[in-house]
Design goal:
2 helices, 5-stranded mixed sheet, single chain, Rieske Iron-sulfur Protein, 13 strands, binds FE2/S2 (inorganic) cluster, 174 residues
C-alpha cells in the first residue's frame, strides 16, 4: 500500500485540509442517531463510515482507493470524493450536495442514507434522491478498476439530469 494512503482509523492523519470540527459533528450525529435507536456504535452493522485520503495520480486527475472489502462509506474530504460500497456495488460521488454544489454531504449510519446538513436533502446509498431541495441524485464520478484499486476520474463527473445513461453506468460491481 502506498505510504501516503491514510488508513480509515485516523481521519485527519496526513491531511492538512481535514476539518476536525466537521468530523466531530458527523461523529456526534451518528452517535446521537444510534442512541435514539437504542444502539451503540458496536451495533452499527449497516454501512459504517470511515475517513480516508485517496492516492492522487501524478497529474492529479485521478484518485485511487483499495477496493472496499465490505459494504461501507469512505469520505475523502481532501479529494471531494465519497466512495460507497453497497450490496457489492462501488460508486464514487462528488462530496458536495447537488443543490448548491458547495455543502459537503454527511452519511447517516443510523438511517443508511446521505443527508445534506444545509437544507436536509436526503439520498439513498446509490445516490438516488429521496427528498429535499436538491432536484437530482448525487453527482457521480467515472470509476474503473485497476487490480485491487478503484480509480476515480476526478475530472469526469456525471449529473443525473444531464446524462442519465452516463450517471447510471458510473458504478463498479466488485
Ligand atoms: S445545499 Fe443541500 S439541500 Fe440545499
Amino acid at each position: 500500500m502506498p505510504d501516503h494512503f491514510v488508513l480509515p482509523s485516523d481521519p485527519c492523519a496526513g491531511d492538512d485540509a481535514c476539518d476536525r470540527r466537521a468530523f466531530l459533528r458527523r461523529g456526534a450525529a451518528v452517535v446521537a442517531g444510534l442512541a435514539a435507536l437504542g444502539l451503540t456504535a458496536d451495533d452499527a452493522l449497516a454501512l459504517p463510515v470511515s475517513h480516508v485520503t485517496g492516492l492522487a495520480s501524478h497529474s492529479g486527475e485521478t484518485a485511487s482507493y483499495p477496493i472496499p472489502a465490505k459494504d461501507g462509506v469512505l469520505m475523502d474530504d481532501k479529494r471531494d470524493v465519497i466512495l460507497a460500497r453497497h450490496k457489492g456495488i462501488v460508486t464514487a460521488f462528488l462530496l458536495v450536495c447537488p443543490h448548491k454544489g458547495t455543502n459537503p454531504l454527511d452519511w447517516s449510519a443510523a438511517k443508511n442514507e446521505f443527508i445534506c446538513p444545509k437544507h436536509k436533502s436526503r439520498f439513498q446509498p446509490s445516490g438516488m434522491r429521496i427528498e429535499g431541495k436538491a432536484d437530482r441524485a448525487m453527482d457521480r464520478y467515472a470509476v474503473s478498476r485497476q487490480g485491487n484499486m478503484v480509480v476515480v476520474a476526478l475530472d469526469r463527473i456525471f449529473e443525473q439530469d444531464k446524462d442519465a445513461a452516463g450517471w447510471a453506468a458510473a458504478q463498479l460491481a466488485v
